[in-house]
Input
Amino acid sequence: MVELLDIAGQDAAIGRLQRAMASMRRPHALLFAGPAGVGRRTTAVALAKVLLCDQPASRANKGRLADLPEDFALKLACTTCPSCRAMDGDRHVDFHLVYKELLQYHSDPKVRERVMQELGIPVIREFLIAPAGRMSGRGRGKVFLVLEADLLSEEAQNALLKTLEEPPPGVTIILIADQAAGLLPTTLSRCWAVNFAPLPAEVVRDRLIAAGVDRREAHFWAAYTAGSLGQAQRLAEQDMYRVKSELVERLAGAGEVGSAELAAYLTQTADALAERTIAEFKKAQDAKLSKQLARRRATAVLLGLIASAFRDAITLATAAQRALVHADQPAAPQALAKRFDPAELARVIEDLDACEKLLWRNVQPTLIWDNVALTVAGAAPLRL
Ligand SMILES: [Zn+2]
Output
């Protein structure tokens, strides 16, 4: 398990948490806000380990966290007590993950059938408010970690207000959200916010290289994910670099080969990716991922890669002082910048964005690919 001081690139957030833990009025409701994949959840779990530890260790900062004095006493998990071992084994009775999919385990069968689009009252009542009021299993309080808190419904937030305001003794609640703005002001005012910034590209790159990813590839994913280590690791693990390299090369030549061939290639690639995701999902979680959902996800990933090549073309066409994301394949954005003027490039990016939204409204990926291929080949504006 990753310990608090091993988290990459989030020293400011960790420093703020250390100050909070040392203060007389330690906050009991926290909000970790920031983009996905930058360490919000890893930090929350590591913090929970410290809070639940039987004998937390104290260590002088000695320059480890730049924002804190040298002699600041950092509070860390001992890593050896039964509580720490339970956290490592992912079986701590006082650590509760709260997420929208818990709906399927709700005690009321009627509730279980509801659509899981938001984090609603049933989940919050049964899996947070009720257990927060019960005794701590190991006697050192409880920690609740609410994932995707941006999806909390208004009713659920209102139901949670009292618990956030004054949690039962020893209870700490950590909300994780992409954007604090997605929550009600009344919720925000009761939470102590910690912001998680995107990681510097070098941090992402170096972590990937340390994990054995090729330097050129690591460089690309660090730029592409704009500081999301989690996303970069996932994409690298899925061997997506090979896919992206071929895709970008095809985009460069799309003007010559015609849209039908490009559409066929895009459809096949998305299908192959979807099949692989389904197989990997089954292996990892022993669960089924629907083919439709897997195809949508694969299509969204490819659309994102295509859009990034067009963004690079705008950078070139407008001579903007910005590094290319596809610096490893500059010929592709160069070709696109020749084929389209900046206004057209911007329109294609908007269209690709619109395509991604349509994906979630049950438009068939093949229809999307036919249109994308026409647009990319420069033959026609997108019509959906
Ligand atoms: Zn411990």
Notes: Residues 238-376 form one domain.
